[in-house]
Design goal:
The complex is a heterodimer of chains A (about 120) and B (about 110). Chain A is mostly beta strands and about 120 residues long. Helix content of chain A is about 0%, strand content about 55%. In chain A, strand 5 and strand 6 form a beta hairpin. The radius of gyration of chain A is 14 Å and the shape is globular. The termini of chain A are far apart. Chain B is mainly β and about 110 residues long. In chain B, the strands form three sheets. In chain B, strands 2, 6, 7, 8, 11, 12 and 13 form a seven-stranded mixed beta sheet that branches. In chain B, strand 7 and strand 8 form a beta hairpin. The mean pLDDT of chain B is about 95. Classes of the chains: A mainly beta (about 120), B mainly beta (about 110). The interface between A and B is medium-sized, with 23 and 23 residues.
């Protein structure tokens, strides 16, 4: 059974760096083909794809946010970390991590964590 | 980058009636080597994360009721709910996962008329 859970601060100040951790179980990022992604959703708005990390440490980013995002993995801890620099109030959103399948899409989602950017 | 556009933005349908949501991608999402469309549909209920309903444009995820069906190929796709139930009230998103950056449509809010 695959589960994912996001953790991190609920409130960050403008210009600060956000660090979110996704802790998962039921699969391993050592397994060929496995990927973990991050997606966000501002309140009342649509889903926005952010980043993806592959089992072989390949990484993909949203072009519009690429300069601000870094995705890393710690396979020993079953964790994926997303950092986003220079946070702005427009980055206020629920951030989800997902188990991504190259064949089926985002098959499993965490519950999400709401991050508010405010001074 | 592939842009995905859904229509309509919102939809009100009577219980037991058919609901149809459209999704269009700016480029084909049909992978020629396996003839699969890399297009998924998700359902999001209030306060919950999205849930995968359909992948490969027309394959239902395990446990998804058969009143949900997907169709289309290339750049034009449709999600159909054949007989709307009260529990189907949600926002529905399509997503292309043919190429990164993977992209979502803007969502379609489905309500009961």
């Amino acid at each position: 059974q695959i589960t994912l859970k996001e953790s991190g601060p609920t409130l960050v100040k403008p210009t600060q760096t956000l660090t979110l951790t996704c802790t998962f179980s039921g699969f391993s990022l050592r397994t060929s083909g496995v990927r973990v992604g991050w997606i966000r959703q501002p309140p009342g708005k649509a889903l926005e794809w952010l980043a993806l990390i592959y089992w072989d440490d390949d990484k993909r980013y949203s072009p519009s946010l690429k300069s601000r995002l870094t995705i890393t993995k710690d396979t020993s801890k079953n964790q994926v970390v997303l950092t986003m620099t220079n946070m702005d109030p427009v980055d206020t959103a629920t951030y989800y991590c997902t188990h991504n399948s190259p064949w089926f899409g985002e098959t499993h989602w965490g519950q999400g964590t709401l991050v508010t950017v405010s001074s | 980058d592939i842009v995905v556009t859904q229509s309509p933005d919102s939809l009100a349908v009577s219980l037991g009636e058919r609901a149809t949501i459209n999704c269009k991608s700016s480029q084909t999402v049909l992978y020629s080597s396996n003839n699969k469309n890399y297009l998924a549909w998700y359902q999001q209920k209030p306060g919950q994360p999205p849930k995968l309903l359909i992948y490969w444009a027309s394959t239902r995820e395990s446990g998804v009721p058969d009143r949900f069906s997907g169709s289309g190929s290339g750049t034009d796709f449709t999600l159909t709910i054949s007989s709307l139930q009260a529990e189907d009230v949600a926002v529905y998103y399509c997503q292309q996962y043919y190429d990164t950056p993977y992209s979502f449509g803007q969502g379609t809010k489905l309500e009961i008329k």
